[in-house]
Structure formats: structure tokens, C-alpha cells
Amino acid sequence: MTKQASPDVGLFAPDIIRPALVQSFVKLDPRSLARNPVMFATALVSVLATILTIREGLAGGPTFWIGLQITIWLWFTVLFANFAEAVAEGRGKARADAFRATKSSGKSRLLLNPPDHELFEMQDVELLEPGAVILVKAGDLIPADGEIISGVASVNESAITGESAPVIREAGGDRSSVTGGTTIVSDWLVVRVTARQGDTFLDRMIAMVEGAKRQKTPNEIALNILLAGLTLVFLLVVVTLPFFASWSGTSLPVIYLAALFVTLIPTTIGGLLSAIGIAGMDRLVKANVIAKSGRAVEAAGDIDVLLLDKTGTITFGNRMAAAFVPVGGASDREVAEAAWLSSLADETAEGRSIVELGSKLHGFNPVADIGTFVPFTAQTRMSGVDLPGGDSIRKGASDSVLKHLGQSATAELAAAVKTIANAGGTPLVVARGARILGVIYLKDIVKPHIRERFAELRKMGIRTVMITGDNPLTAAAIAAEAGVDDFLAEATPEAKLALIRKEQAEGKLVAMCGDGSNDAPALAQADVGVAMNSGTPAAKEAGNLIDLDSDPTKLIEIVMVGKQLLISRGALTTFSIANDVAKYFAILPALFVAAYPGLGLLNVMGLASPQSAILSAIIFNALVIVALIPIALKGVAYTPSSASALLTRNLLVYGLGGLIVPFIGIKAIDVAVNALGLA
Amino acid sequence: MQADLLQAGLYALVLLAVAVPLGAYIARVITGEIAFLAPMERAILGASGASGPQRWGAYAASLLIFNAVGFALLFAILFLQNRLPLNPQGFDGLTWHLAFNTAVSFVTNTNWQSYGGETTLSHFSQMVGLTTQNFLSAASGIAVAAAVARGFAARQATTIGNFWQDLVRIVLYVLLPLSVLFALVLLALGMPQTLSASVEATTLEGAKQTLALGPIASQVAIKMLGTNGGGFFNVNGAHPFENPNAFTNFLQMSAILAIPAALVLSYGRLVGDRRQGYALFAAMAILIVTAFVALYAAERSGNPLHTGFADPSAGNMEGKEVRFGILGSALWAVATTAASNGSVNAMHDSLTPLGGLVAMLNIQLGEIVYGGVGVGLTGMLLFVILTVFLAGLMVGRTPEYLGKKIEAREIKLAALTLLIMPVGILVLAALAIATGNAQSSVQDAGPHGLSELIYAYTSATGNNGSAFAGFNANTPWHNTFLGLAMILGRFGYILPILAIAGSLAAKTPAAATAGTFPTHGPVFVVLLIVTILIVGALTFLPVLALGPIAEHVSMLRGTSF
Questions:
Q1: CA distance A79 to chain B (A)
Q2: 3-state SS of chain A: helix, strand, coil percent to 5?
Q3: Which residue of B has its CA nearest to A458?
Q4: Which residues have CB under 8 Å from B458's CB, separation 6+?
Q5: Torsion angles phi and psi, residue A470, rounded to 5
């Protein structure tokens, strides 16, 4: 199966940049700015500075030239923040356009008398209501999300998932839902529409990536409040300053105060906050996951316990042959050959794995006539082959084969069967004619590298619990091999739900994934419920995230995206606040050196003149937003590790860095400003 | 110098030796395990009709009502002291604004004094009025800390304790016994305690001198223990009757920080994780040691402008008692400003510019370096919440403290308290300048005058009560606005932190994992200190640059004002 790279967009692709430049100005609309207290304050100050500069220009005042430059950079500060948001949205929009291209228009067959395929009318897709029953045939685009009432068909879902191999969708069971925008490759389906046009998955996905429906997440709201609080504090600082300056016998040009205010308030994080949020959602979409709310993404970062289904997540869905165990004096080769012959025509994954293992161990060559294959049936619970020579080989569960042969197990056979079962494997007894040759050890194969992933999760403080229908003995063996922290054996939906409730009562946040209707209560109860896109509508309704790839290991990536989102916000906030120290050392001496020449001591950066100091600080403040856009969009680098290690690292990079970088940056800009003769 | 450092080290050791057992004891008082006066407790509580645990709102309302009644009574006593008994000197009633200011001052545990005690107040006002509030305001503060610790530690609870019960227990088991004990010790060390007004003394020159007397020891004991700081005499701890010798000086300095420091350790016990208390204790210790080193160094290095008429090797002795010297004065100045006590044994107005800056900054950080009894701890917890929020995001989880998620509501309340210091100090001081009221009250010109003004509003908003002097606060304008600043600085912190306690009480604590941001340990301590310095200090850097820093750099250039 090939996987197309999901549509990725370069950070600064021209297609993104050009509209973003336009959007930077469109977003000057006060209604749009008002969503962000810090940038709103900056914009108000910019307006004030503009008025002051015009007045100063008309009056021919001495601060006109420097005031004009400050005003321009104040506006740049706002525009850069708008630009960051626009770029983030633009990247989403590019993705959304790709989705939108797959949206169907035109007509579909609305069945008027549902079981009857012949009686239909062609209905405009836009007019399809939930509950309508439609018929889709090979080659048709499925016009809306729905549940299959009857039929089996292979469906190409690459438009949504990027997976090019068609998947089987059928009525009943856990694969009964279809997504609008996918294409029927063969056969037909009768589908009951479950979502109105404009509210389908595709629509949700488009809305999410475009940020149109983006609501602020809880942490983002709290952070916004804190930033607004800090903005107010610095407003008080700056507004009262002229009085203290007048006491000291000096007066401060208002334009300088405006510059001081904007450099002190947390414009860096304020300008990048919404870009970080949009980019976080975008990363999720890139991973082919739809979040029904931003809250779920944040909650993913907080997860303490991950419930993972064994099959498909921890192990491959299929058991594979791992060994041949001879009994009753048969040789290794005899068992292997019998098993190999009996499986040549067996197209199941297990059968293929037996053939592979036989060829590998004993180098059996293909034979021309493989005889008559006897397929597995629920009655016999065996499969096998009748060879051209009249010999027959059967393989199957121990008791079935024994019953078929009318024998009872020898002590040796019973022991071999038990050993395999205890190790978490499935024993298949092989008999040729009436002679039992041995046992095939079918093993649950734990996915490679899954152990390392669980170790990473443990480092992050996340406990993994394996959910399986196996008996406790088998479950324990697999759990030990996979390295999960705990397991729930012989799991029923009720037991799953009870486990989630128990963990939650201990104050833990639980994530799980599921696809069946019987998973729905647990998905709804879990703090983060990831429903597989291939799952039933009930499961998809209950989960708060939907994985379009239907890949249960995706949960781990979702947790990482959630954490990275929070870390990016925290790191840039810390950086932004730490910057203030250097800005003070640039601006305060510049403002007060006239009143008290001794305060020149505070000019530790040795900035050339008061004017160039203020100008350099405001330029640095604006440029740092642009410089940090890549970090905001890509997210702060995150490797799974303990909270203490993460904190130490991020504090050094963004805290200490935030203290030091502006000293260097402002000094460099000051040198440039003076070289260009700007101040 | 060596002897100085030895004494400072001894001070730290004594403090630690007192704080550890006292912290354990207070924790047991708060949980109700200490109950040897239970019948008396029941009698008092029965009379007040209090019963049952309260939600945070009811707790806060009880506290507000109690303090409002206390204010009204004290206001009446001061306003009408000429018609009340025990007024041997026959002092007049206070003006309305001075009575307002003083009543607010003592109810809010500030003990700012716009007046000179021995020349303004009757014994009745001092003993019945002020000393009562010295106990009750301190007890109110500790009660807040008790309720907050309870709320932080609770699990899905709706209540945070009963205010009246906390109040009674704190007074009965902590403040009263400690004060009686301390008063007796001070008495033994030569501090007067009498109801007579004054004695006549004949000086060596043969002149007659009136020496004011009064119930000094009893008032001084609770003044120091309850971070009150309001002196019996105008010059406070510099008066030989209020601070007779080096030994009383040492004991009083220790008493300033004893309960605030102990409460931090009590907090660790109350929330069930002593390390939390140790971490806060360590952060406060680092801040106070830094402040001491800075202030001591500034005083030690003296004032170059004194060269020629003072011994430069003695350091800056202007405004200091020779009995206590640089160390005894510097240590006291740091302790009293860090702990919101406000008593003084040296004139802060005469500190070197940088020494004065340290004293001022100690208060401007929000009185959280041990801070006032109870409220110092809770003020620190507000910074903890902000720190946890910023740092918590950096580990990729919704920030938690003690397993409780810090969400929009808590941040909203904590961010609100960030505004209190700037409003009380910067806005009110700017207002005083704009209306001309600052200019008429300040004694000195230039940056020092600005320091005097800023210090007054800083002291009031921080509920410290110490005065820089050189500032005439006894005017209708300043009495009123300093009073408002005190109310803002007291209840502006208490109400939000109680609300936060109420909201955290209701949450389910999450079990700690490797992914949990640890709030003990050195990284957190450093982070907390940096947050305090950046958020607290940056706010005041501009005005400090125009005040003490400008004065300092001018002094170095030989300029005076």
C-alpha cells in the first residue's frame, strides 16, 4: 500500500505569502483585532502615534523624523502579527482547497422506496437531508457522510486519508460508515445520509483548517487573560511615568512613551498566539486527524493513561507462524512440509505466514499440483489439503483435529500445546493422514519499535494499558513483550468503561481509541476519544477526535501534537516576558539621561543616542515577531522526556535566551540604525 | 565586619530553630489537633453563633464583616478618645481623616502611623484600640492562610473552613501565649510596662525632662509577632524604652519573621507535602538574603559626600542608633520591609539611596518575602500560580499546582492582583503629584523627595507601615488616599486568593507522574524567584530609576539636591 504525502505546504511558499500580505492589512479591521487584547492595544497606540506624528509634522517639531519612524515600526508590529496569523491560516486554506476540490456537486440517486434500487430520482447533492437514502454505484463520488444500509463495496478514500488502496465498506459491523468525498471503486451501496451538506466531515475538516470555526482553547483563554493583565500593568507604568518625570524636571515626548509601552507589553506572544493555535490544528490535520474541538487537542497533551487495543495497535492484526514443534518422533522437516503444503492455497495472512516460514526454514520449492484445498469452516474449525496422491493434511485447533482423527492427545502433544498457549500464542495441530506430526506456533507479532514508543510515553509520564479479549495468561505474555504498563484481559465494553471511570476518579485523564458501536460509551467517557474513520457512526459521534487513517497508534502522535501546542505557547510567552529586561535597559536611560546624566550608567549596551536606543528597541520588538513565525508555525522542538528535563531545556533556550538575545539584537540594530543615519 | 556576619548568621539560625517547631505547632492548631482550651473556644464561638464549614464566599464575607466592625469601633475610639477613660495626658480626639487612616491602618495589619504615638494617643486608644487590632488583624491574616492551605489541599470540597473558628484558635493558641511570653521576656530585659503617663527626670545639666511612659512591653510584643509594627513611640524601635539594648534588638528582629516563616512550613504540612513548604521557604530565604546583602553592602560602603565630617570606615551611620550599628539596623530594615512589619530602629529616610531602594523593593514585590502573617504566604501563592502557569505550559500540560489544574478562572483572579501594587503605588503617587499634594508634603527636593513620596504609598499599599519619614502624611488628602491604598493592598489580595482557594478546593487533584511539572526542587525555586523579580520588579524599575537610582548615580558624581 502506498501512502501519498498529505498535501504539505512550504513555510513561506509564494502562494501562501502573497495572500497573507494582503490579509495582514485586511486584519487591521478593529473587529478582528479586538480578539487579541495585546495587539488591539498596540494598534490603538499606533493610531495615537500616527496622530501625534502628523501634528508634529505640521508644527515642524523636533521629534517629527524619529516619531515618524517609531510610528511606522509600531504599525509594522501590528502588521507582522497579522501576517503571522495570515500565514498560518493560509497554510490551512491551501489544505482546505485541496479538500474542497473533492467535494461533490451535481446529483445523486435518491431512493424513493428504499429497498427498491429501481425507483429513484436524481436529487441535487446540496439538497440531501439527513435520513435520505441514496444509491451509489461504482465510479460514483459518495456525496455525503452516511451509514451503509445494504451492499458491500470497495471504496477509494484517498481524497480524505491519502491511502491509495481501496477499503471494503459493508453494511452491519464496524465498517459501515462512508465519508463524503470518497469514491466507489466496485459494486454498489445503499447509504442513509447522516450529515447535512455543510456539516459533513469534509466540511468540518475544511472549517477546522481554515480556522473559521476555531474557538479559543481553555489554556489559550487563560493565557490571553494573563497577557491582558500584564498589558494593563504596563499601561499603568507608562501612563504614570510623565508625572514622575515632571517631578524630576524633565518631560517625555508622548511618542517615546508609546514606544516604551509597546516594547514592554508582551507583543511577541500576543502577535503569535493565534498563529500557534492555528498551526497546531494544522499539524493535526496533516496527521489526518479531525478534532471536533480545540479542547480535545489540549486535553491530549494532558493525558495520563492511554488505553490501547491490542489488535492492530500493539500487535499486527494477524497471527503469524513462529515455529514448528514436532511430536511423536516426527522430524522438524516433516511437520514443516505438511504445514507448508496445507497452506499453499490458503490465502489468509496466517496461511501465508506458514508458507513463508516453511520456505525460510527448509527451502521448500514450489510444486506444480498443490492438490485440493479444504477451506476453514466454522463446523470443522480446520483447514487443509487433499494431496494428488490421496494423502490428506489437516491443521486446526487441537481439540478439532483430535476429534476429526478420533484420537486423544498424547502427553507430549498436550505439553506442546500448553507451552504455546502459555506464551501467548495459538497452537495449530498438524496431522498428515492419521498421524499427528506436530504443532504450528502461531504468534501474535508485536509491532516493531512499539516497545520504544511505550518507553517514550513512560518518560512523558503516560501509562499505557493494553485492552484485549484474550485470556489473562495470553494477555500477560503479550503485555510483557510489548512493554505496556498494564493490561485489561477478557475486556468487555463494560469493563472498558469501568476502567476509564476508575482512572478518572483518581484524577487521571484517559485517552482511548475505538471503532465499534460498543466502544461508543467508553469513547464518550474518555477525556480524549479517538474514533477510527472506518468505524461506525455511533463511535464517530462519541469520540472527540477522528482518525482518518484508522490507525490506532495515531493516539501517540495526537498526544505529541497537544503537548507541542502548549509548549510553544509557554516557551514564546516566557521569551516575550524575558525580553523586557533588555528593553528597559535600552529605553530607560534614553528617557531619563537628560534629567540625571548619571543614569547613562544603565546604558549597558552602549547605544549611540537616546533616539537610536528607542528606535532600535521598537525595531527589535517588531522584527522578533517575524523571526519567530517559523517556530510558531512548526512548533517548538519536542522530544518526549520528563517534565523536569523539558522544563530545564526550554527555560535555558527560551528563558535565558529571552534575556540575552534582545541585548545582542538591539545593539546590532542600533549599529545599523546609526550606520544608515536614521537617528 | 566578621562580627556582623556572625550575628547575621546567628540570626538566620535562630529564625530557623524557631520556625520549624512553630510551623509544626501552628499547623496543628489550624487542623484543630491542639485543643487544650476547647471549653473556652466553645464558649467564645457559642457566643458568636458561628458554626460549620463555610464556602469561600461566606468565609470572605465573615472576614470582611469582622474587619468592618473592627474598623468602626477603632474609628470611634480614636475620634472620641477625649471622652474616654485612661487619657492621663488629656489628648484631644483625632481628626476624621487621621482617625480613618489610623483605624484602616491597624485593621489592615499595616500600622502606618501618620501621627506620633506618645504625643497623640491616650493609653485607652493604644491598649483597647490599637493593641486589640494588633491581635485581630494578625489573626485575620493567619486565618486567610489557613483557609487557603485547606482549599489547596482539599479534594472536591465546597468549603474552606470556618472563619470564626480559625480566628479564635489562632488568637487563643498562637498569638496570646506567644505575646504574653514575649512581653515578659522584654519586661525582664528592661522594657517599661506601666499605666502612668510619664516621669520627670533631671538631666546632668540640671534641666527638667519629661519622659513618656506607658504599657510598652505588652504592645511591643504583639507589634513584632503579628507583623504589625505600629510603635508606642514615634521613633518606634529606635526609642530606648521601646528597644532598650542589643539583646531586645535581636529578639525583636527574630520576632518579626518568626510567624511568617513558620507559616510557610505549616503550609507544607497542611497540604500534605512538606517539600512544597520547603520550596517556598527557600525562595523567600534566597530573596531575603540577597536583599540583606545588598542593603548591608550599601550602608557599609557609606556615602562619599560625608567625607570630611564623618568617619568613612564606619559606613553610613546617618539616622542609625549607635547602639545597634550598621548590622543591627540593616538586618532590621530588611526584616521589617520584607515581612510587612513596618517597625523601624533606624530612619529609612537616611539609608543610602541603594539601601532605601532595597527596602522599597522588598515591599513592592508584594510583601511576599515571608511577608505579613498569613497574607505573605498567600501573596507568594499568587506568584506560585502565575509561575506554574507560565512554566507548566512549557512542559506540555495544562498547568497544575498540587495536582489541581490552573485554568482561566484562577489566572483571571491572579492577574487581577498584579494590578494592585501599580495602582496603589504608581497611580496614587502620580495623582498626588498631579494635584500638588505630593509637593507640599515632601521635605526634600529631587530624586530623594520622589523616594519619600513613593515609599509612603508603597508602605501603605504593601500594608507595611514603615515610614521613610521626610513625608508629612497627616493631611486630609494623604490620610484618605493612604487609607484607601491600605484597603486595596489588604483586601485586593485576600479576596482573590480566597476565591482561588474556593475554586481549587472543588477540583480533583491529579496524581503526579513523570510528566507533572514539579513544584518543589531547585528549578522551581529559581523560576519562582525570576518570575517575582521580572513581574514584580519590572513594574517599578522606571520610578526607581528616577528615585533612588538617580539619587545614587548623582551621589557618585557628587551632586546633592
A1: 26
A2: 55, 20, 30
A3: B514
A4: B360, B363, B364, B425, B464
A5: -65, 165
Residue from B357, B360, B395, B441 whose CB has the most chain A CBs within 10 Å, to mutate: B395
Q: Which A-chain residues 449-478 have CB contacts (< 8 A) with chain B?
A: 458-463
- Phi/psi of residue A385, nearest 5 degrees: -150, 145
- CB of A51 less than 8 A from some CB of B: no
Q: Are B112 and B98 in contact (CB under 8 A)?
A: no
SS3 assignment, position B319: coil
Rounded to whole angstroms, the Cα distance separating A514 from A202 reads 21
Q: How far is A44 from chain B (nearest CA, A)?
A: 21
Instruction: List the strands of the sheet with A382-386, edge to edge.
Output: A315-326, A435-446, A426-432, A392-396, A382-386, A372-374
Residue B175 DSSP class: I
**Record: contact A222-B411, CB cut-off 8 A:** yes
* C-alpha torsion angle, residues A496, A501, A507, A508 (rounded to 10): 20
Give the C-alpha distances (Å, rounded to integers) separating B99 from B69, B343, B424, B455, B473.
15, 20, 20, 21, 13
CA dihedral over A221, A222, A228, A231, signed as positive or negative: negative
Extract the C-alpha cell encoding B82: 477625649
**A80 CA to centre of own chain:** 27
Calculate mean pLDDT across residues B382-407: 89
In angstroms, rounded to a whole number, what is the distance separating the alpha carbons of residues B226 and B252? 11
Is residue B298 a contact partner of residue B379, using CB atoms and an 8 Å limit? Answer: no
pLDDT in tens, A406-423: 888 888 988 988 888 887
Mark yes or no for CB contact B433/A654 under 8 Å. Answer: no
| C-alpha–C-alpha distance, residues B136 and B176, integer Å | 11
Spell out which residues of chain A touch residue B517, defining contact as CB-CB under 8 Å.
Answer: 643, 647
3-class state of residue A531 by DSSP: strand
Give the residue-averaged pLDDT of A482-492. 86
Quick one: how many helices (H) and strands (E) in chain A?
23, 21
- Looking up cell 498589558, which residue turns up? A231
CB contact at 8 A, B331 and B292: yes
A304 touches chain B (CB under 8 A): yes
Q: Which residues of A touch B389 (CB under 8 A)?
A: 222-223, 226
Query: What pLDDT is attached to residue B174?
Result: 95
- pTM exceeding the 0.95 threshold for the entire prediction: no
Contact A240 B508 (CB under 8 A): no
- Picking from A273, A264, A177, A173, the residue whose alpha carbon sits closest to that of residue A219 is A273
Instruction: Please report the residues numbered 430 through 469 in chain B whose beta carbons come closer than 8 angstroms to any beta carbon of chain A.
Output: 430, 433-434, 438, 446-447, 449-450
**Which residues of A are marked as active site?**
309
Give the residue from chain A lying closest to B386, CA to CA: A226
In this prediction, the answer to ipTM > 0.95 reads no
Helical packing angle, B375-394 and B274-301, nearest 10°: 110
Chain A residues with CB-CB distance to B541 below 8 A: 584, 588
Taking only the tens place, the pLDDT of each residue in A391-410 is: 889 988 888 888 888 888 88
Cell of B409: 478562572
Of A330, A321, A316, the residue nearest A360 (C-alpha) = A321
pLDDT in tens, B151-205: 999 988 999 999 999 999 999 999 999 999 999 999 999 888 887 767 788 888 8
Contact B56, B502 (CB under 8 A): yes
* Beta-carbon contacts below 8 Å between A and B: 215
Contact B287, B529 (CB under 8 A): yes
Would the CB atoms of B393 and A648 count as touching at under 8 Å?
Answer: no
User: What single DSSP character describes residue B463?
Assistant: T
Is there a contact between A655 and B530 if contact means CB atoms under 8 Å apart?
yes
> Between chains, do B418 and A230 touch, taking CB under 8 Å as contact?
yes
CB B103 within 8 A of CB B481: no
Q: What is the DSSP letter of B546?
A: I
